Amino acid sequence: MKLLLSWLLVALPLGWGVTQSVKKATPLFTSQPAQPAAATPPLPTNPLAPTPAKPGQ
Amino acid sequence: MSSPFSALTREATVAPSGFNRWLVPPAAIAVHMCIGQVYGFSVFNKPLTLALGTDITKVQFAYQIALMMLGLSAAFFGKWVEHSGPRKTMLASWLFFCGGLVISSLAVRLHSLPLLLFGYGIVGGIGLGLGYISPVSTLVKWFPDRPGMATGMAIMGFGGGALIGSPLAQELMKHFAKEGSTGAGESLLVMAAIYSFFMLFGAVLVRVPSSDWRPEGWVPKAATQAITSASVAVDTAWKTPQFWLLWVVLCMNVSAGIGVLGRAADMCQDMFGVSAAIGAGFTGLLSIFNMGGRFAWSSVSDFTGRKAVYSIYFILGAALYAVLPYAQQTQNKTLFVACTALIISMYGGGFATIPAYLRDLFGSYQVGAIHGRLITAWSVAAVIGPGLINSLFTSRVSGGLPKAEAYNGTFYLMCALLGIGLVANLLVRPVSARHHIKQP
């Protein structure tokens, strides 16, 4: 029990730290470099029309 | 009547029979993950600049003094650490490190830069050095069968400390910030309290094995060419060529890694035209590999031997650096990220494997103190690495090269540094028997 609690006490903050870094690193794998303005599709004129997906989604 | 401090002596921390040695790594990790906060100090740069009414370079000076004091205190107090045992050292480390945070908080309240430099830099820096070497010797003695893995766990904690310290400070400052205050002073005080809990937990939990203790079923191997069964005192060890070869090994490995780690976000943005958020994400990813590499590579070294694993760091590291210009030319971001992540894992591995390498060559008698003196290589590398990469990059940019290509020369320079490290590593031979002590 003492062993488990001791490891838990250090694993929890370390796990939290890793989670924070993973969150920070997420844009590296999800985002794309900004596209030139001309390549941006025009906004739909009909407000009920579906919004086109953004690059990288 | 026993003194109230008698519980702190080495003798008082000798483990009773039946003590589970796996309780010692959490004690070591607890201390290391606190002092690893120093790597996350940069989040205080802007708030402290505002609070103290000074410029950022002066605030950053506190961090530089702290790292310098880490090396100096580890080198100077190493023998005292060996003599006093881990509990007294961890307590001293707590007093200095958390005391430094409290003084820094006071410096914010009094708007005093000198007090910040004294508190975080000098006082806190001494705590860093003591805390860094405090568990090394103890872990090596508890895990004679797996010294690489054992010290790797503690030093992984130091890498993890950076992952914790930075977001913790940001969350606390967000909580305490109010009109006219950045919340830095209050955050430093709360961090001192949180870290006190973990460091004291480590100090209470830690035990040293009795001199005749051996892991159950473990039979010490006969001394080999690579691993000695003899002992060398710290005052003798640092006069041997082996010490200075390992000093060069550590210095080159750290210089090659720290140069990239320090500029990671800018490098990613300049070479691939990505946003600042992605650059920051890249730094976050490297931090995880820095931490993981400390445990993984040092554990591997228990099977491959220390010389072999350092040869891998240097040969594979140089090969990966040589690939980076190709990744830039082909705009292959995935290749770039994979190569740099592996490089940084070996940078972390280099830190974590060195105590076991020292133990192999000099024995476990004063390995903590010898490690303390070797850490001066880190202080030197902290100047060499960023200095070289920054000056070469600047000269190439001012020579008319686009920023995206200017880094390529620095990567070849890192290959050369790793080459020097490889030569030093290959020159390491067992310590001459005339340096061995008869009765440790």
Architecture blueprint of SSEs:
The complex is a heterodimer of chains A (57) and B (440).
Chain A: H1 2-30
Chain B: H1 24-35, H2 45-52, H3 56-84, H4 86-110, H5 113-133, H6 136-142, H7 147-176, H8 184-205, H9 234-237, H10 241-272, H11 276-304, H12 306-329, H13 333-362, H14 367-374, H15 376-398, H16 403-427
Helix pairs in contact in B: 1-7, 1-8, 2-3, 3-4, 3-5, 3-14, 3-15, 4-5, 4-8, 6-7, 6-14, 7-8, 7-11, 7-13, 10-11, 10-12, 10-13, 10-15, 10-16, 11-12, 11-13, 12-13, 12-16, 13-14, 15-16
Description of the molecule:
The complex is a heterodimer of chains A (57) and B (440). Chain A has one helix spanning 2-30. Chain A is mainly alpha-helical and 57 residues long. In chain B, α11 packs parallel to α13 (333-362) and α12 runs antiparallel to α13. With 440 residues, chain B is an all-alpha fold. The radius of gyration of chain B is 22 Å and the shape is globular. Chain B has 16 helices and no strands.
Query: Helical content of chain A, roughly?
Result: 40-55%
Q: Count of helical segments of chain A?
A: 1
Question: In whole angstroms, how far apart are the ends of chain A?
Answer: 46 Å
CATH homologous superfamily assignment of the largest domain in chain B: MFS general substrate transporter like domains
Catalogue the unreliable spans of chain A.
34-57
Q: How large a portion of the residues of chain B is in β-strands, by DSSP E?
A: under 5%
Structural class of chain A: mainly alpha
Q: Using a beta-carbon cutoff below 8 angstroms, give the protein chain pair with the largest interface and the number of residues from each chain.
A: A-B, 23 and 35 residues
Shape of chain A: rod-shaped
CATH topology of the largest domain in chain B, which one?
Growth Hormone, Chain: A
Q: Supply the CATH architecture of the largest domain in chain B.
A: Up-down Bundle
* Total DSSP E strands of chain A: 0
Give the C-level CATH assignment of the largest domain in chain B.
Mainly Alpha
Oligomer: heterodimer
